[in-house]
Amino acid sequence: MLVSTAAWCTDVYAHQGPAYHFGFKKSQNGSMPSINEEGFKPIVDKYGAVFLGDTSRKVLYLTFDNGYENGFTGNILDTLKAKKVPAAFFVTGHYVKTQPELLKRMYAEGHIIGNHSWSHPDMTQVTSSRLREELDKVQTAVSQVTGQKEMRYLRPPRGIFNDQTLYASQQLGYVNVFWSIAYKDWDVNQQRGSQYAYENVIKQLHPGAVILLHAISKDNDGALGRIIDEANRQGYQFVSLDELTAGKR
What we know:
The chain is of the alpha/beta class. The protein contains ten helices and nine strands. The strands form three sheets. Strands 2, 3, 4, 8 and 9 form a five-stranded parallel beta sheet that branches. A two-stranded antiparallel ribbon has the order 1-6. A two-stranded parallel ribbon has the order 5-7. The longest helix is centred in the middle third of the chain and has 19 residues, at 128-146. It is globular. Residues 1-15 have low confidence and may be disordered.
């Protein structure tokens, strides 16, 4: 769904508000994380953003952020293919420009490619026209590389958002996708081993969880197969984001 230029400018600048970081206390022993208590839940719900699926079912939604390539995504794709697990990869402009073959493989193997913005800005600090440009450039470039006709999912850079960014991206047809499981995995200079990654993800498992991992992490690459196997052993099933958002499309 698109809006006219006049309506776009008028509506977006009428929807201001404080900036939020999508942070929370982690899940423990199958409990829910503290997202409901962090103060931003009403605005997330208002614009149909997602971070959690059906908590009555032991389902998991696996997502990766791909700002740039660090040599591990090929292995991650190998693991997903071997384990028959669907995933969503949120990519930046840098990734699209430098990794067309990996993008083609993601799409060919049935994974979702989502939008992580062209240049990874704090979207609460850019104009509405810049926000639209950031998203349109990624969508167009991914389509040209892979043939993927739609791009329905957005992960805001750094998990920073406000009323304006959620409204504006919703008007462009996006569902904002946050998460309910994550850990500090993005610092390539502070990797602590695959066992650390495994333990951090497994101890947070809960029904309906959206898992955020960064594909630049060597630890995630090494742990992914074991994470999938242990989640399956505990009765969890990995399903596509399309199932989570079926009612929002």
